[in-house]
Amino acid sequence: MAWAGELQMRPADVELLMFRSAANADPTSRWRQEPDAVEGLSDGDRTVLDALEDAADAFAALEPTPSDVEAVDFEMGSRMLRRIVLARWRT
């Protein structure tokens, strides 16, 4: 968790964000939390999170279908971007 310092967050907060990200990625997760449920998130941050969801849907619909490697890379990049937005909310 060395990058927790780069985000100016406690490692426990970073772990929580990672857990939430994983839970939110699974539509069947009992711990899933929609971005609207996060108190104090600005309208701009909500807009960015919504745009990331729209981008994920558009990416999945690409023809030809993205390869498994491309899909993993896209998901990793999306998670990183969501963490940045949520880290702004936590500070």
Features:
66% helix; single chain; mainly alpha; 91 residues; globular
Structure, described:
By secondary structure, the chain is an all-alpha fold. It has a domain at about 10-20 and about 40-90. Helix content is about 65%, strand content about 0%. It is built from four helices and no strands. Helix 2 packs across helix 4 (about 70-90) and helix 3 packs antiparallel against helix 4 (about 70-90). The chain is globular, with a radius of gyration of 14 Å. The two termini are about 15 Å apart. The model has no long low-confidence stretch (mean pLDDT about 80).
Secondary structure: elements and pairs:
Elements: H1 3-6, H2 11-25, H3 43-60, H4 68-90
Question: What's the gist of this structure?
Answer:
This protein has helices at residues 3-6, 11-25, 43-60, 68-90. The protein is mostly helical and 91 residues long.
Total count of helical runs of at least 4 residues: 4
* Assembly context of the chains: single chain
- Stretches with pLDDT under 50, minimum 5 residues: none
Q: What overall form do the CA principal axes indicate?
A: globular
